[in-house]
Amino acid sequence: MDLQVTSGVIATLLEEAARAAPEECCGLLLGRDGVVTQARPAANVAQDRATRFEIDPMALFAAHKEARAGGPELLGYYHSHPDGHPVPSATDCDHASGDARTWAIIAGGEVKFWRDGKEGFEEMEATLIDQAAR
Description:
By secondary structure, the protein is of the alpha/beta class. Helix content is 24%, strand content 37%. It has a single domain (3-133), classed as Cytidine Deaminase, domain 2 (3-Layer(aba) Sandwich), CATH 3.40.140.10. It is built from three helices and eight strands, in the order βαββαβαββββ. Helix 3 (90-95) links the parallel strand 4 (73-80) and strand 5. The longest helix is centred in the first third of the chain and has 14 residues, at 7-20.
């Protein structure tokens, strides 16, 4: 499945990662039909936010409720690796659910997208689009 991402989403992801450093940022990727139109920051409620992330369950609940009411769909999640690379860590792999959602990982001023598949993470090709193109 192809992924399209607005330039505004990329900007938000990079800004959130810079703001949260040296801790990990995290949040939700929202949109519809494989087009990510929003990156919604969420509180990182992990005990060790420098090396782990845990999205605030209330943010997840709110996103699902909004989608049921006709709002954007929850397409995936994002988080940063402040001192790492934009690839899934061993911890990411251990906590992945294989639900086919998209994960964006931000590190070193770069964003990479991954599909959380049944056999593990697969890198996704993302096409950058302007918000007006949608």
